[in-house]
Amino acid sequence: QVQLVESGGGLVQAGGSLRLSCGASGRTFLNAMGWFRQAPGKEREFVAGIRWSSGTTNYADSVKGRFTISKDNTKNTVYLQMNSLKPEDAAVYYCAATLYYYIDLRKYDYWGQGTQVTVSS
User: Fold this and answer.
1) Tens-digit pLDDT profile for residues 30-74
2) Closest C-alpha among 82, 38, 73 to residue 52
3) Quick one: DSSP state of residue 22?
4) Nearest to 34 by CA among 19, 51, 17
5) C-alpha triplet 118, 34, 11: angle, nearest 5°
6) How far apart are CA 70 and CA 80, in angstroms?
């Protein structure tokens, strides 16, 4: 089992920045970690993913150039730096992880509880 705990959410004005963090504990032979988000009335959507060994990343088109996913292997922590935030970025952001290799960086087995990001216009 992998336990994930997110932090860093909050309220920010449009155009501002936030950095989310997610620490993993338990079985930490991670293969990949990622971030998803879910806005009210919408389905959960992929935001970004990162391969633990190679650092290969993948982003949703809607966040490319604004968001950056990174990791600290020594801390089993993944980060999501969010810049130039827009009101449509407001959502609950979920951290995800997998111990297994999936070709698709959007596939995960473990999930955090989520952290709220609110963007005021």
Assistant:
1) 999 999 999 999 999 999 999 999 999 999 999 999 999 999 999
2) 73
3) E
4) 51
5) 10
6) 7
